[in-house]
Amino acid sequence: MKLEYVPTTCPYCGTGCGFNLVVKDGRAAGIEPWQRAPVNEGKLCQKGRYAHEFIHNKDRLVKPLVRKNGKLVEASWEEALTLVAGKFRTFRPEELACLSSAKASNEDNYLMQKFARAVLKTPNIDHCARLCHSSTVAGLAAAFGSGAMTNSIADLEEAKCIFIIGSNTFEQHPLIGRRVVLARKKGAKIIYADPRFTPTAKQADLYLPLRPGTDVALLNGLMQLIIKTGREASGFIAARTRDFEALKETVLQERYAPENVAAITGVPEEALRTAAEWIALSKPSALLYSMGITQHTVGVDNVKSTANLMLLTGNLGVPGGGVNPLRGQNNVQGACDMGCLPDVYPGYRKVADPGIRKGMEEAWSVPDLPEKPGLSVTELMEQLAEGASQVRCMYVLGENPLLSEPDLNRAKKALENLDFLVVQDIFLSETAELADVVLPAACYAEEDGTQTSTERRVQRLRKALEAPGEARADWQIICELAKLLGYGEQFSYLNEAAIFEEIAAVTPQYGGISYERLEHPEGLHWPCPEKTHPGTPILHREKFTTPDGLGVFSAVEWKAPAEVPDSEYPLLLTTGRSIWHWHTGTMTRRSESLVSEIDSGWVELHPEDARSAGIVNGEQVKVLSRRGEVCLRAKVTEGIKKGVVFIPFHFRECAANLLTNSAFDPVSKIPEYKCCAVRIEKTRQTGNEKEPHGKGVGRNV
Ligand code: SF4
Fold first, then answer.
1. Ligand 1 mean position to 341 CA, how many Å?
2. What would the DSSP string read from start to end of 445-496?
3. What mean pLDDT, rounded, does the chain reach?
4. Which CATH class is domain 3-49?
5. Residues with beta carbon inside 6 Å of ligand 1?
6. 51-71: per-residue pLDDT in tens?
7. Domain locations in the chain as residue ranges
8. Hey, which of 175, 451, 587 would you mutate to test ligand 1's pocket, going by the most ligand atoms within 8 Å of its Cβ?
9. Domain 571-682 - what CATH class?
10. pLDDT digit string (tens) for 657-695?
């Protein structure tokens, strides 16, 4: 029995850990450490450790499915693809929309946006970065000219202070959490701001118990303290930034004085002073954030505010510093880089720019690319739900909006208003169940490719197995459809490497990257514009990528969330992940080892809120918002702020997104997942109440 060890990259979070997939008799038999993997050095979190378990699950899609008489039934590829291509032909470009996936490879994402624009001629291409980090792309691009993590993960060890805000790093990006621990061992101070006392809080030297939706107030308050004590980096500000006076005028207002910020945020005044001192005096300081910052109606303002703080303290362009957004899924960074956004081609070049459009028409040998940006998925869902959208047909690759969209009742109504829905996935997701045609796809272990981690590191995915049944690689399915629609020549690729060659040719940041160079385990950090370029782990060393090369301060005022508690819905709901599960659970809930730790959702609430509602730990309760309700078990804990409740968003039977608010940021269109008003009620007792959730959470929360 020969064992084969195939080095590849983890399909879960954006950390980009490498591991060896162990193959025995053509089946995935386990995961083994890959010591040379640069990010994780052979270590893995629970999800990575068991990333082989879902691959051979009996629920894998193995044949195309076509809806007949209201039921999805098996069909041949020829029948399914002919039907899809025929249907696509019947819609005008503005009636079509495509959703790509941050779980898919760069090659698959690149082809999906090319297919939307070049074949369907629709500008409507988006993906789930809209829902997690679109405010990062907009906010950091405004401040620095580039919407990506400024420093590398390993670089965190150089920090003397790490400020983590809106990121439960130790549960969501555990192998980045490891670098935080290593930095702390070397003497770095760790500051953590969050409404929950998470495992990340346990590693912190200073915990700031922040009320959800008050991030700008906190950041402005810290900046006021830094400026008033004369601790701003004057030399850096003078040489490398602009618009400081406007920022200063804003943050020095009375409303951001420590006592007022303490009242808004719930963070004690003394803790604010300590945090401001540590961030300003520790050289260098790094800032980490994630969806606790981005998923707000003021997501872009929040992101700009984090950039302001690091510009103010001169922590950009230096090892151990930076503004570091931690991307959620394995390839959110790559899917954005590949142009799966309605306003940009690969490399963030504007679709509305006639010169750039002409260049893409030449590169792709196609005429008439769409002239204007398309709809974001949040705008699209809003219009569809209201019955006011031009879009009548959607092609969804590897996304599950029926669990990931806010206000799920509305999302279901939106998708039901479509005339034709095609879903391409590895399992029959909640969204696929609603589709007219389902196309079975290969998973991460069944095709070659690349993905780009949160630190802009491009790494290889390697094919280790054959896809089950008749499932095919996403790129092959897209190429087949393109051929049927008359674009065979433009979608003729020998393999994934050939697609990557085209990516490198049209994406300036990837210009010097090739499969050959990626054979080195280190991968390459973009920008890597030429074949001899070593890659760029740290951005903005000499100048920013803004037109004038300067970092831009933004004067940002704090605004309350779109929905705040009132007498009818007196609690604030915030959502997030568990260390054992991932996103909508399509993969982790089919992993025996992970499910044995946690099998369903729960709601965390403070003992005083539980007492007020007459609720005890482990009791089944109902949580209601203006949009829906869910039943789940209560976890009563001191580890959450009074007035705030938390629900993980992985579980379809108690989907947090039935409750969340679809109000979105006006610039990035990201929904406000992190704040909405709810109330909790008792439900009828069954006598079978048990501990709130699996044993694993008990160990980790
Ligand atoms: Fe995979 Fe992220 Fe865990 Fe690393 S930290 S093993 S990338 S889930």
1. 25
2. GGS-EEEE-TTSEEEEE---SPPSTT-B-HHHHHHHHHHHTT-TGGG--SSH
3. 94
4. mainly beta
5. 10, 12-13, 15-17, 40, 44-45, 47-48, 173-175
6. 999 999 999 999 999 999 999
7. 3-49, 65-130+330-493, 150-325, 571-682
8. 175
9. mainly beta
10. 999 999 999 998 888 989 999 999 998 655 544 444 433
